[in-house]
Design a protein that fits this description.
Order of helices and strands: HHHHEEEHEEHH
CATH class: Alpha Beta
CATH superfamily: HIT-like
Strand order of the largest sheet: 1-2-3-5-4
CATH architecture: 2-Layer Sandwich
Shape: globular
Oligomer: single chain
Strand content: 5-15%
Number of domains: 1
Distance between the termini: 53 Å
Number of helices: 7
């Protein structure tokens, strides 16, 4: 029990001067389902990247839809504005994409960078794909590319010392800002 002005602390056993003895703890129990792999897709029928296009944009956090690719916010972002570019077709590997899919994926990546930069003033980006679960893909069966905005000094004391990411905006608000700034000329929404 804590009194006025006192913070609640959970005793953590020492690990000989390691992180348990040094770090404060911010609890994020909602992440445990992700870490444990609960509800992890087992095929096309429950793949989130196959289900999202059937949702309305706000519910699915869809920023933009093209003919072959869509842009969606990452539900577990590394930074604010973390967008994923995803082909509609359920394929695991970059080499499985058609020439048209590769071209639209590239166009959507460029547009995502322009839009996020315009909306948030991002200084740079990490762009990449994790190909296969051994390479870190959380959903290895459905290819997706990450566009993670970066700012000078965004690796500050919170992630480095506090092992915590601070996201200044709820995902639905971020989605609305990015969607409103996304140019409409990237192609009509794909019928699902």
């Amino acid at each position: 029990m804590t009194g006025p002005g006192e913070s609640y602390r959970v005793e953590v056993p020492s690990d000989d001067g390691g992180p348990a003895a040094v770090f404060e703890h911010l609890w994020t129990p909602y992440r445990m389902a992700y870490i444990r792999g609960e509800n992890k897709p087992t095929g096309v029928h429950d793949c989130p990247f196959c289900l999202i296009p059937r949702m309305d944009d706000e519910e699915g956090l869809v920023v933009a839809r093209g003919r072959r690719v869509f842009a969606v916010l990452n539900l577990y972002p590394y930074n604010a504005g973390h967008v994923m570019l995803v082909p509609y077709r359920h394929v695991p590997d970059y080499t499985d994409l058609t020439t048209d899919e590769v071209a639209e994926l590239g166009e959507f990546t460029q547009t995502a960078m322009r839009v996020v930069r315009a909306v948030s003033g991002a200084h740079g980006f990490n762009i990449g794909m994790n190909q296969g679960s051994v390479a870190g893909a959380g959903i290895a069966d459905h290819l997706h590319q990450h566009a993670v905005p970066r700012w000078g000094g965004d690796t500050n004391f919170m992630p480095v010392i506090g092992l915590t990411r601070v996201l200044p905006q709820v995902l639905r608000e971020t989605r609305a800002l990015l969607a409103a700034s996304w140019p409409s000329g990237d192609g009509p929404a794909r019928g699902v």
